[in-house]
Amino acid sequence: MSATTVADVVVDGLQRAGTARIFGVPGRGAQLPLVEAARRRGLPVVLAHDEAAACVMAAVTGDLVSAPGAALAAPGPGVAAAATGVARATLDRSPMILVTDRHPESVHGCKASLALDAVSASRWTAHAAQLAMQEPRGPVHLDVPAEVAGASAVPVAASWRPEPLPPPDPRALDEAARLLANASHPVLIAGLQCRSATDAQWLRALAEALPAPVLLTLRAKGVLPDPHPLMHGVLWPGGGEGPLLGRADLIVALGLDAIEVSPSPWMTTAPLLYLAPSPATGEWYRPVVQVVGEIALAIAELAPRLHGRARADWDVAELDRLKRPLRPRSGVAVGRLTPERIARLAREATAAGTIAALDAGPHAAAVAAAWDAVAPGEFLASYGPATAGFALPAAIAAHLVHPERRAVCFTGGEGFLAALSELPTAIRLRAPIVVVAIADGSSDAPELVRMGQRFAVPSAAADSEASFAQALARALRADGPALIAAWS
Q1: Which of 180, 188, 18, 203 is CA-nearest to residue 95?
Q2: For a designed S-S bond to 339, which of 82, 280, 326, 366 qualifies (C-beta 3.0 to 4.6 A apart)?
Q3: How many percent of the chain have pLDDT more than 70?
Q4: Spatial separation of the C-alpha atoms in residues 57 and 366, rounded to whole Å
């Protein structure tokens, strides 16, 4: 029997932490010991075109399975290429471990950089997994030089998950209950730390019990089903939520990270009640009361404290009037193919559970408003820099986590070009992804179609609702990825 190597210990640690697969790049010989160890131990290895996309796939996988994603980066250019993906994971609070070879320097944006040797392999791998999952979540850098990866190592027992959070402070819960009991027009805002299925159930219960309208950040879309009558849309800079917030006498932030919002959307002077797994940060983001702990547990503990309180004084007709500006707008002319109609038609044509991935761009707000998500993890978007090119790698990751579900990737011409190198990855995996590239104009659409056809991907152009519906029907029958270039 061959000796256990450092690479074996690292892979075993990732598996124990719940890592679903490792993402890497072909031809990076220095990473072979880790790749071989992963294959020996049954941990899937998925090859992307470059490290930036591999990091996106790892980060999105980490979000979807609630365990650290893992990406490999070779020395020099590989680490440099990974920088954009690391920055996205940092801003998106995505749990990810970036494994390098002979790069002992810190990687900007990572929560820590840890250098392994044969003695410390188990301990540092476990620490990296814990740190990546510790709120606020984020990327951790693990350096495993090739000569170390192949060395003999002795596995050491370690804890691979963060310690459970302590229960919420009873005094903070009492103060939170007092604020809620005295509020006649509370508004709930849920963020990226409130995305587990359990948190979503308790958020819905709280909203319906108060009752109170709910706003979600882009990363939390789906936590309350979009069709729910109390769901009032995505909190978006310059969006239409100002009148609703202006009527609020209490803002209840659940898992809302300061990075998700800026002072501009807060068109209210209402007090802020904060419930989250980690303390509030930011100079302007100062809650009157904060309850730190598991969100579901905090809401459960609030329930008996709110027993017998008067219901909130929101008028159903008033809520509907305030919600109206947030609803998707139809095209000015019948059949006009606006981004709203593109997203709405795609949503209507796809099965329940379909996952949408969104690139940044002028179409993003319209698509986010028009695509109905009914559960956490059904809508993927990034706050990271240069987010063009995020959507296709994210959709590939979603397919690998949920192979039984289809994904729709909404991008623009720039985003499609940025992610074009990952189209062969989607083809190789036979990922049933419909790429909807919303072109800047009719002159750009034929070039986008030609690009798709070069890869033998079923591709079509659409400039009306009827032509888009026909192209979408064909794309949904494709055995693998398909492309639609759409414009109005």
Answers
A1: 18
A2: 366
A3: 92
A4: 25
Checking if the pLDDT of 264 tops 60, the result is no
Whether 205 and 235 map to the same domain: the answer is yes
Q: Residues 149-164: pLDDT tens digits?
A: 999 987 777 777 888 8
- Using one digit for the tens of pLDDT, what is the confidence trace for 194-214? 999 999 999 999 999 999 999
Task: Answer yes or no: is 463 within a domain.
Answer: yes
Residue that is written with structure tokens 């892979």 in the block: 11
Q: What is the CATH number for 31?
A: 3.40.50.970
DSSP string, 124-178: HHHHHHHHHHSSSP-EEEEE--HHHHTSB--------SPPPPPPPPHHHHHHHHH
| Model pLDDT for residues 364-373, shown as the tens digit of each residue | 999 999 999 9
Residue with tokens 């996952």: 355
**To 10 degrees, the CA torsion angle through 54, 58, 60, 66?**
180
Rounded Cα–Cα distance for residues 251 and 349 (Å): 36
Q: Are residues 417 and 313 in the same domain?
A: no
Q: Which of 275, 291, 326 is the last residue of a domain?
A: 326
C-alpha 59: how far from chain center? 8
